[in-house]
Amino acid sequence: MCIAIPGKVVGLEEDGAIVSFGGTLRKANLDLVEGVREEDYVIVHAGFVIRKLDEREALETLELIKGAGLEIH
Amino acid sequence: MMEEAKAGLERILLAHGAGGKMGHQLIARHFLPFLSNPILDRMDDSAIMEMEGFRFAFTTDSYVVDPLFFPGGDIGRLAVCGTVNDLAMGGAIPLYLSLSLIIEEGFSLEELTKILSSVQKAAQEAQVLIVTGDTKVVGRGGADKVFLNTAGIGVIPGNQICISGSNARHGDRVILSGSIGDHGIAVISKREGIFLGEEMESDMAPLNGLVQAMLRASQQVHALRDPTRGGLASALNEIARQSQVGIIVEELKIPVRESVQGACELLGLDPLYIANEGKLVAIVEREASNSILEAMRRNPLGRDAEIIGEVVADPREMVLLKTRIGGTRVLDMLAGEALPRIC
Amino acid sequence: MKYIEEFRNIKLAQALSAQITRLSKRPLSLMEVCGTHTASIFRHGIQDLLPPTIRLLSGPGCPVCVTASSDVDKALMISRMPGVILSTFGDMMRVPGSYGSLQEARAEGAGVHIVYSPLDALHLAEGRPNQKVVFFGVGFETTSPLIAATLKRAMSLGLKNLYLLSVHKLIPPALRSLVSSREVKIDGLILPGHVSAIIGSGPYQFLAKEFRVPAVISGFEPLDILQSICMLVEQAEGEEAKVQIQYRRVVSPQGNERAVRCLEEIFHPVDEHWRGLGLLPNSGLKLREEWREWDAESQFDLPTCSSEDPPLCQCGEILRGVLLPSQCSLFAESCTPDNPVGPCMVSSEGTCSIHYRYGRVPSHDGRS
């Protein structure tokens, strides 16, 4: 119900962040979040940043999943 | 006809022109009853006819793209490439084009000149001549700036080449000439103005040179389609239907540019359904597939060509996609309009 | 694309698939609530990676599908008013109301604009001071804070010609309705990742505490969904019931408190009619009294319409997971994506639309 995808902040302007999605750039409003900086990864829904992506958690999740693979063998 | 009567189809919707199921149904149910004949009924990209011992291909297309100018091209270039490509998809060498313009009163002469200059350049690239044409002007509001129509004639040399959407056979391989989604995303992004930065370019190009290179490598090309409106998915479905076969393609083999992928993810669109104007999909004899692939990769328009799948006997008239995680799903024809989604 | 591609890795998907198969002993019915999850499951063919003991049900988390036809009628009426533009997400264009859809209204000349963000509606209103722009507010907790932020911006700009027709809804009351009705056996819930990014995990605790249903807040990529299913199977096999967060890179237990505050400033919960679920208490959002002048329902003359679902349409049962689309007599016969009867076939995240477009794989008996 909620298409929102992760992108990288490549610029900050008065009315929002410039976010790159694989090279495609879109402006996203920052009214709903705090402390967003360049190089951060953010989740954008309908022109707004709704969350910062926690890169450490992302890596941990992948490690957990890789662990599942190791368990089998 | 029953469903439409039940739903009360009284008016043409935008979706009828999108290149998917609705458009096909409109033609099948409302046009063919008046126009049907053995040549038209084949419903290939161009009609192929035989006269006095040689074969020629004939096709027409109208161009109503909005915006008129976008990165990588404009309506003028599109009008030449689109028709040249339809001829090339029948294995024909394109020779002559007609050009008709319907211009809205008040349209800028400067823009018209730009368009005509693009037409000239594209015609030179494709090595075709514009030999006849027509110009009409309608009152303000009667057309959206300018509409173009081109019709084209080409010749199919010899009698070995037999390329038609109905010729795909069990065991054939499916080759895609390069990345998909470029043109449609370029147009959407220009029109909607939602993306910033470096503009995404359309892939618009005349494909007759590429096709001739393929045919020199092998004449065992069974079907060709340039996946325009409705995208690769619709083109494959058309072939599956016409040839009464099934087609299986692998998602991981289908090239998509990262920026196009990003734009699609953002808009909730699927690159498999987005228009391309400089790509083709070929169904070729299995043994010939590697040599044809090599010939394509040597051509500038086929550098990123990949074998993406194969033709099977069952399930008939269906296209299946092996997904990137190893699952299987149906790759249906485009239903309705490809509307961007948020929710 | 970073943080997307890694979560689509085929080897890891197969590893998770093997683990689920190893852990799963008894038959389980797991419901994915969110339409975006249903779409992802079918687009990637995740069913093929699950053992036959796991059955996936689709729930009512498609805001387009649960919008009452009377609300579509209101939007249609507004679009036909002179000097008024209805701005909407593309998702709503083809939903049939009682007298046609917004797409058909546009073909007849009504003022309908597709937008990608509520901010587009604000810009539209700025650019056309002599016209009124009404935004058709559809969506759950992921979307409603955006509308709240947009209205606040509009107010600070002194805009006087922007309005909201709110049919926004809340997910937890729908979940409560599903698990308490016991109409369908639900052994575990895959909870919506982006709604939860906003509201956190707190509002779901009742599922575990009151109803002992395992629940996992899941991301949308194939590995997210597979890992969530693995976590649910672990809980079910271990006779546990708790709310876990799989989508930890985006969802924290507290959620996005700033967004929630913004939402609460503008909206208040009301009882709302959901197609398929009926009237649910405190499940909809309407504008607070202080924001009345922005509210399309008070500022425009809209007669109350009654909500009638098309005869024979079984979207209701499908939204509750009671029936599969293939069990509806209209499915793929008189109800198709090109000629939809009900909203589940219209929305690209509607269960019926997804089953029709992706699910009718000939070898998949019983799933489509």
Task: Describe the protein.
The complex is a heterotrimer of chains A (73), B (343) and C (368). Chain A is of the alpha+beta class. Chain A has a single domain (5-72), classed as SH3 type barrels, CATH 2.30.30. Chain A is 25% helix and 41% strand. Chain A contains 1 helix and 5 strands, in the order βββββα. In chain A, a hairpin with a 2-residue loop joins strand 4 (41-45) and strand 5 (48-52). Chain B has 2 domains: 50-159, 2-Layer Sandwich (60s Ribosomal Protein L30, Chain: A); 173-330, PurM-like C-terminal domain (Phosphoribosyl-aminoimidazole Synthetase, Chain A, domain 2, Alpha-Beta Complex), CATH 3.90.650.10. Chain B has 10 helices and 14 strands. In chain B, the strands form 3 sheets. A 7-stranded mixed sheet of chain B has the order 9-11-8-12-10-13-14. In chain B, strands 1-2-7-5-6 form a 5-stranded mixed sheet, with helices on one face. The model of chain B is unreliable at 1-6 (pLDDT under 50). Chain C folds into 2 domains: 1-309, 3-Layer(aba) Sandwich (Rossmann fold), CATH 3.40.50.11740; 315-358, no CATH class. In chain C, helix 4 (102-107) links the parallel strand 3 (84-89) and strand 4 (112-115). In chain C, helix 2 (35-43) runs parallel beside helix 15 (351-358) and helix 6 (144-156) crosses helix 11 (257-266). Chains in contact: A-B, A-C, B-C. At the B-C interface, helix 1, helix 2, helix 9 and strand 14 of B face helix 1, helix 2, helix 4 and helix 15 of C.
